[in-house]
Amino acid sequence: MSDNNNPFGGQFGGNAGQYTTSVQYGGAESAKSALGPAPGTAPAPAGDLIKDTTTAAFAADVIQESRKQPVLVDFWAPWCGPCKQLTPQLEKAVKAAGGKVKLVKMNIDDHPSIAGQLGIQSIPAVIAFKDGQPVDGFMGAIPESQIGEFITKVGGKGNGAPPVSEALAAAAEAHAAGDAQTAADIYDAILAQAPETIEAIAGLGELLFEAGDAQGAEALLATAPEAKKDAPALAALRAKMTLAAEAAALGNPAEFEQRLAANPGDHQARFDLAMVQNARGDRHAAADNLLAIIKADRTWNEDGARAQLLKLFEAWGMTDEATLAARRKLSSLLFS
User: Fold this and answer.
1) In the chain, which end has fewer C-beta atoms inside a 10 angstrom radius, N or C?
2) 262 labelled catalytic
3) Tell me, which fold does domain 164-250 have in CATH?
């Protein structure tokens, strides 16, 4: 973003120090800012990238934190329409940046003094801080693509790792931690910049499917490039959706359990129970029931239990704990 279209470019580029003095963050801490972050300082974890601040907390949340990594400050107010447009896009882009920058939001109605001392006369306004100093910024609700460019400019491209790879890792981490909304925001931001990213299509599709939107997941899968429609990540999601649909059509698992209690050799009941168990997330039990059929009668249903177990492996992923455990048991059955 050039100084021509960045109202803060000239001010922050040449006279950043005057703002630090004016806002009174001086003293020993200001003297340290010239030294930069301490050696080995790590970026904030994915779950600590966005927060609200106050006048009292501004020095710690922004000035001190910006010595570790760049911090964007979003000055906003509840009555500001463009703020409501910009802030969600800003949050999404910061999450997608995978920790290169942090975002701190300040409501100027509740905390007007900082904005006043920085000379901010209209909102939304976003100012980037580095090493305790304001270095760049923009005003108004700019397009999402320009937000990404601004974050890349301020935060850099990381340690040589592709930004998409960093964002995918952050999304996977959020999903594993149970933060589906953050994961979805990151995947959505990736697809806005690189719509053919297979891992993002599969990741967002899985989130939609888990949320009960199978139709949305299918529509998203259809956007994959023709040459990559059979990519392993997409195939795994399709297999998972197919298995869930088959399990949903089977009925009450209690019926299968009763049939097995009466006749442990009822392979069809055991097979159907395994499908329901898989749909409910009990992967180990599902695998054990299919393995029990294979052990008792490998020829049942034309080796159908083994074929179904291989489908489960595809849906779970080759490195899943249940896949690895069941594959070891299967190998023991087949080759012992």
Assistant:
1) C
2) no
3) 1.25.40
pTM, whole model, 2 decimals? 0.44
Cβ atoms within 10 Å, residue 87: 19
Q: Give the number of other CB atoms < 10 A from CB of residue 215.
A: 10
* Residue found under tokens 């529509």: 219
**Contact predicate 130/154, CB 8 Å:** yes
Q: Which helix (H) or strand (E) holds 271?
A: helix 267-279
Domain 50-155: homologous superfamily in CATH? Glutaredoxin (3.40.30.10)
Establish whether 80 is a catalytic residue.
Answer: yes
- Catalytic: which of 83, 106, 141, 286? 83
HSE (side-chain half, CA atoms, 13 Å) at 218:
8
Q: In whole angstroms, what is the distance from residue 156 CA to residue 135 CA?
A: 14
171, 190 Cβ separation under 8 angstroms: yes
Q: What are the extents of the domains in the chain?
A: 50-155, 164-250, 253-335
Mean pLDDT per block of 10 residues along the chain (336 residues) reads: 37 31 27 29 55 93 90 94 92 84 94 86 90 87 86 68 73 88 87 86 92 90 87 85 78 87 94 88 92 94 93 84 91 82
CATH class for domain 253-335? mainly alpha
DSSP-derived 3-state class of residue 206: helix
Contact status, residue 109 vs residue 102, Cβ threshold 8 Å: no
Structure token digits, residue 42 = 């790590």
